[in-house]
Amino acid sequence: MPASFDDPYPVLHDDSKSLFWVRPMHVDADGSPKAYHRDDPHGSKGLAIEYMGNGMTIERDGEEIEFVPDEAENGEWLSIYRRIVENGWQAPEGYTVDIYGVAQDKNGKVCVGRGGRLTSATSLSRRAVSDLCSPKRYFDALKFPGIVVPNRSPDEESVAKGDPEVAPPFARRGVRRGDLAIAYNPATGIWKGAFLYDTGPREKLGEGSIRLVMNLMARKNAPRSGDETNSMTIPEVHYLLFPGSVRDLGPEKQWTPRRIERAAAERFRKWGGGSIAVALKRLSACADEYEQR
Q1: In a shared domain, residues 133 and 156
Q2: Crossing angle, helix 257-271 and helix 276-291, to 10 degrees?
Q3: What does the pLDDT profile of the chain (293 residues) look like in tens digits?
Q4: What is the DSSP secondary-structure string of 73-118?
Q5: Burial of 167 (0-12, 13-18, 19+ CB in 10 A)
Q6: Is 118:133 a contact under the CB 8 Å cutoff?
Q7: What pTM was computed for the model?
């Protein structure tokens, strides 16, 4: 791969054919109906499997209040969170809140379902489902193998004819939501197909859906708490993304985890000149090159 860019981590690329990077894989639970619950911000009561602090940011006078996983040490964050909930998900005076992991309706109201279940959203959504608060509109992290790339910040201009949700350095190289990818875990020797199903913060390049992490770990049991979900980080993963490959998936209504994995594997085979064995050797060479950057 002859070129690279930093956003903020190095990404190798060969124009618009493929992009490669090496990062830890942190778990992204977004899109799962089980991700968030109003009354279980730590995912410790059996109502949610993700920390609420991974779906929203609270600031006081411009300074972020840290979410601490240990509930006993998270008193400051929790006290403000409760006030926000009581205030209809609006921050009290002196505070601001940015809610990004939970869907909001056309009026900007947080989607709260029966009993306090929150609709977790992904950047990629099903166009056939118009209800912004319907969990069916989003791609379930427990079912779909997905990766995450940085999103475009509000102060950045979108790339002409590019995906407006994707950070410009990626969008300029043809990356679109739905594009196919390969993730390889060198610790287990397992590689799996995935697709780009969500966007996230610049500093978190390397997130993967719960399903993808489970696939790369050969794990069968899904996490049942926030602590369990966030303990599943894989120290090193090799990522290979194929810009413009979303068209390989065909009509959106046909998108299934199996179809995504098979289409990504076929792209990987072609990337290796028709051989998976060659593709894996090429991937290893990219990793060696990446370490020298």
Answers
A1: no
A2: 80
A3: 778 898 889 999 986 689 999 999 999 999 999 999 999 999 999 999 999 999 999 999 999 999 999 999 999 999 999 999 999 999 999 999 999 999 999 999 999 999 999 999 999 999 999 999 999 999 999 999 999 999 999 899 999 999 999 999 999 999 999 999 999 999 999 999 999 999 999 888 999 999 999 999 999 999 999 999 999 999 999 999 999 999 999 999 999 999 999 999 999 999 999 999 999 999 999 999 998 87
A4: G-HHHHHHHHHHHHTTS-PPTTEEEEE-SB-B-TTS-B-B-GGGBB
A5: buried
A6: no
A7: 0.94
Identity of the amino acid at 147: I
Where do the DSSP E strands lie in the chain? 3-6, 10-13, 19-25, 27-28, 56-60, 63-64, 95-99, 146-150, 180-185, 190-200, 208-209, 234-242
Q: Distance between CA atoms of 61 and 104, rounded to whole angstroms?
A: 25
Among 137, 154, 177, the domain boundary falls at 137
Does one domain contain both 120 and 167?
no
Tokens matching residue 184? 């390889």
Contact 283, 19 (CB under 8 A): no
Q: Tokens representing 6?
A: 């930093």
Largest CA distance in the chain: 60
Provide the domain limits for residue 111. Answer: 52-137
In order of 16, 33, 231, the CA distances from 270 in angstroms are 15, 35, 35
Token code pair at residue 98: 């940015």
Short-list 142, 120, 124, CA closest to 40: 120
In total, how many domains does the chain have? 2
Q: What is the DSSP string of 189-205?
A: TEEEEEEEEEEE-GGGT
The one-letter code for the residue type at 153 is: S
Q: Tell whether 131 and 214 lie within a shared domain.
A: no
Kindly state whether residues 231 and 271 are assigned to the same domain. yes
